[in-house]
């Protein structure tokens, strides 16, 4: 039961929402799909005084490809990310990640923007956005700015978003023809948050190999392994990658699901698997499943 | 804070005065007396509060009632008027003993309805993924999967 009084706001346009944030930003908690915020409110973990819902705002769930960039409105539900042809074609890793979020009802209601703004370090989208060079669009009544995903997350559930800003759009360069990508996750039960997750993007002919790891640090950990795989996959290169992933995960912490050392070792295993998955898709231009 | 909202519930337009703190699950149960849905966890895990909102299943514990203004909600009550008039899916659950205590059943029924509308002939794996958001602590799911397979066959 939610005990604290709530002032509930339901703007119908982005301009109206930004106006609210410009005046009352620090007091306002933004509600999108509610799949994290509502449980936290029901449990009394967060007690907002002003809740602004985005569920009645028009135009925050548009999808388009422009100038080589896939643009996804922040209120796009996971279900759409998982099933939409445009996303499946141009950012198959995102669809792959969306498929693993929660369960049917969670994917029906939860949104990509909400998940990103909530910034749980184990969220499925985070390594995908980082490995895919995505940028996040933050709008305010003063204008907009684009922040690279790798710089967006600054600590556990903290992002660079200012109280007067709204995450309106996710922009991701389209996967180049001939490139391969893949997303893998490790969780004890399907549908629960990942203990470790990893995304990899390999350029055509192994021109580049980029990996991002989630769950081992407040922000996704980036690895450039282009040098390792310049000549293609090899056991030695994959072992060196696992070792680099272990080293890069030094900020990993332990919790009820796994201790820090186990997480670091799993980061190595899943970095390898992400690269193997992406490599397997190189031949079939487009990557993804 | 009180506010008035209007929405469609089981095909009827309703207006309700609610507290802005109220979740949709409580509004449906306490204000509209639609007690078919249950509240198990209030954290979006168990799925006992599943309803269909604008055509998709959602967990009504994770929707503020105030946020449901203008939406269309379907609860399990829309499927049947009583024991002599069970929906085909409900009959299949009864005939296959797809329930024991019944707490999760209304949510299971609505998830099944949604799954079968999209996929009239699901595999066992697809069924298990389709009800992954609904927890049952009695049956071990085996008879629920049987029930859904039977319901699918009856509906085809």
List the helices and strands and how they pair.
The complex is a heterodimer of chains A (289) and B (156).
Chain A: E1 7-9, H1 14-24, E2 28-31, H2 37-42, E3 50-53, E4 63-66, E5 69-73, H3 78-83, H4 85-90, H5 92-98, H6 104-109, H7 112-118, H8 125-131, E6 135-140, E7 143-148, H9 149-152, E8 153-155, E9 158-159, E10 166-173, E11 180-186, E12 196-202, E13 209-214, E14 221-224, H10 235-248, H11 260-280
Parallel strand pairs in A: 1-3, 2-3
Antiparallel strand pairs in A: 4-5, 5-10, 6-7, 6-10, 8-9, 11-12, 12-13, 13-14
Chain B: E1 2-9, E2 12-19, H1 24-31, E3 50-53, E4 56-59, E5 72-74, H2 88-95, H3 105-118, H4 124-130, H5 142-155
Parallel strand pairs in B: 1-5
Antiparallel strand pairs in B: 1-2, 3-4, 3-5
Describe the structure.
The complex is a heterodimer of chains A (289) and B (156). Chain A is an alpha+beta fold and 289 residues long. Chain A folds into 3 domains: 47 residues, Uridine Diphospho-n-acetylenolpyruvylglucosamine Reductase, domain 2 (2-Layer Sandwich); 109 residues, 2-Layer Sandwich (Uridine Diphospho-n-acetylenolpyruvylglucosamine Reductase, domain 3); 101 residues, Enolase-like, domain 1. Helices cover 33% and strands 24% of the residues of chain A. A 5-stranded antiparallel β-sheet of chain A has the order 4-5-10-6-7. In chain A, strands 11-12-13-14 form a 4-stranded antiparallel β-sheet, sandwiched between helices. In chain A, strands 1-3-2 form a 3-stranded parallel β-sheet, with helices on one face. In chain A, α10 packs across α11. The longest helix of chain A has 21 residues. Chain A is globular and about 60 Å long. The C terminus of chain A is likely disordered. Chain B folds into 2 domains: 77 residues, Beta-grasp domain (Ubiquitin-like (UB roll), Roll); 76 residues, Orthogonal Bundle (DNA polymerase, domain 1), CATH 1.10.150. In chain B, a hairpin with a 2-residue loop joins β1 and β2. In chain B, strands 2-1-5-3-4 form a 5-stranded mixed β-sheet, sandwiched between helices. Chain B is α+β, with helices and mostly antiparallel strands. In chain B, α2 packs across α5. Chain B starts with a strand and ends with a helix. At the A-B interface, α2 and α6 of A face β4 and α3 of B.
């Amino acid at each position: 039961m939610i005990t604290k009084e709530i002032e509930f706001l339901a703007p119908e346009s982005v301009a109206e929402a930004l106006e609210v944030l410009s005046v009352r930003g620090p007091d306002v908690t933004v509600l999108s799909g509610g799949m994290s915020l509502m449980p936290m409110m029901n449990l009394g973990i967060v007690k907002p005084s002003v809740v602004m819902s985005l569920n009645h705002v028009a135009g925050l769930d548009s999808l388009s490809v422009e100038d080589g960039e896939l643009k996804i409105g922040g209120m796009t539900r996971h279900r759409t990310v998982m099933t939409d042809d445009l996303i499946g074609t141009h950012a198959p890793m995102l669809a792959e990640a969306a498929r693993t979020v929660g369960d049917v009802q969670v994917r029906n209601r939860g949104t990509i923007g909400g998940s990103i703004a909530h910034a749980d370090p184990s969220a499925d989208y985070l390594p995908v956005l980082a490995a895919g060079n995505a940028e996040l669009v933050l709008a305010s009544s003063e204008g907009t700015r684009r922040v690279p995903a790798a710089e967006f997350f600054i600590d556990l559930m903290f992002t660079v978003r200012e109280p007067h800003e709204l995450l309106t759009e996710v922009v991701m360069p389209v996967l180049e023809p001939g490139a391969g990508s893949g997303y893998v996750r490790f969780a004890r039960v399907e549908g629960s948050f990942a203990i470790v997750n990893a995304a990899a993007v390999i350029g055509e002919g192994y021109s580049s190999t980029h990996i991002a790891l989630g769950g081992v640090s407040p922000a996704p950990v980036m690895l450039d392994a282009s040098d390792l795989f310049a000549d293609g996959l090899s056991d030695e290169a994959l072992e060196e990658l696992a070792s680099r992933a272990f080293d890069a995960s030094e900020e990993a912490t332990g919790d009820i699901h796994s201790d820090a050392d186990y997480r670091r070792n799993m980061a190595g295993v899943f970095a390898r698997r992400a690269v193997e998955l992406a490599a397997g898709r190189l031949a079939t231009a487009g990557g993804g499943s | 804070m009180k506010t008035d909202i209007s929405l469609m519930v089981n095909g009827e337009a309703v207006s309700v005065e609610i507290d802005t703190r109220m979740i949709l699950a409580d509004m449906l149960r306490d204000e509209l007396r639609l007690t078919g849905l249950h509240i198990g966890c209030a954290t979006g895990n168990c799925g006992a509060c599943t309803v269909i909102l604008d055509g998709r299943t959602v967990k009504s514990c994770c929707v503020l009632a105030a946020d449901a203004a203008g939406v269309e909600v379907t609860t399990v009550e829309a499927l049947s008027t009583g024991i002599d008039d069970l929906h085909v899916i409900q009959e299949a659950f009864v005939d296959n003993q797809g329930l024991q205590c019944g707490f999760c059943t209304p949510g299971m029924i609505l998830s099944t309805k949604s799954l079968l509308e999209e996929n009239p002939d699901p595999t066992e794996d697809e069924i298990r993924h389709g009800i992954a958001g609904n927890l049952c602590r009695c049956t071990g799911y085996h008879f629920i999967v049987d029930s859904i397979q039977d319901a699918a066959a009856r509906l085809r």
